[in-house]
Amino acid sequence: MKIVFEPISSYSNKYVNILVNLLKxxxxxxxxxxxxxxxxxxxxxxxxxxxxxxxxxxxRFIVSIYYRFLRxxxxxxxxxxxxxxxxxxxxxxxxxxxxxxxxxxxxxxxxVKRSNAIVIHSKVTEEILLKSFNCNKSKIxxxxxxxxxxxYPNESISFQxxxxxxxxxxxLLFIGAVKPYKNIELLLDxxxxxxxxxxxxxxxGKPSTNDYGNILKECSAGFANIKLELDFISDxxxxxxxxxxxxxxxxxxxxxxxxxxxxxxxFSLGRxxxxxxxxxxxxxxxxxxxxxYDYASIEEHHEKLFSSISLALVQHSYKxxxxxxxxxxxxxxxxxxxxxxxxxxxxxxxxxxLLVN
Length: 357
What we know:
Elements: E1 2-6, H1 14-25, E2 29-31, H2 33-38, H3 40-45, E3 48-52, H4 62-81, E4 85-90, H5 101-114, E5 117-120, H6 123-132, E6 140-142, E7 170-175, H7 184-191, E8 199-204, H8 210-220, E9 226-229, H9 238-243, E10 247-249, H10 261-268, E11 273-276, H11 279-282, E12 291-293, H12 298-318, H13 322-337, H14 340-356
Parallel strand pairs: 1-2, 1-3, 3-4, 4-5, 5-6, 7-8, 7-10, 8-9, 10-11, 11-12
Helix pairs in contact: 4-5, 7-12, 10-13
């Protein structure tokens, strides 16, 4: 089987690399989109084109965003006319960047229409596709998000050695790309309500712009328990950062977020999370090992996040290793439910189904 998987690699997201490697192990030949479009021989051989985040329309200027929209629409038309089977993985409700949101919503509708199969990683995504995009249900295939167990170098985090016996603050970690839609300013405001001796917050990751990084520095100025490491965190460093935290805190925006690779990474490395009830959280069989919540407004998000941190702090104060125990339970759960071997088999089933229809 010869396919395109777009993008074929990512320096900042192991999701793509994991799936590409799993497919290659199953003797699937994979090309990047630009290589297929430049080679008539490869174009003829490729049967399936699988897109991830193709609906994203990045650009600083309106004209560049329209250009990307038109180019992508024409590419999809070309693939359809030439009989290629299009697979699209729907990762988000909407692209996180709200600039020209109507055009981006139009792009998503076009993706739904032109796709022969739509892969989803959470059950709530199916509801969105059916209600908001009038999608044909037969196109939808629910496949769990891959886990990241054994995907990072030196990732062995000793459970027992991580348990601090002395009294110390609750260590919160936000890690990943530092962008406005992730509600980091709200997180900072919430953490400021706690006693500095009770809570430590580390925000680690590269800001989307220098200006946004400066905004966060201003917001956290004067609070010794809030630390910023505003730089790219390499794969080699990630396990160390996560291993030094008691819990990851990810106050995502429910208007756009559906799935989270960072949540899956936390579980894969034996840590639990404080996170809104996005699709990744919703699909889990149990919520007793997670601190999750729903909200309908910014004000409610603030209070729900404060309550979740407060609960974690009380439990941490009562029993130092309780958060690590919850993290280990989540690692055991995703090792089974999000088994990468099962996921690649399900993905191959989707491809094979398209080829015989």
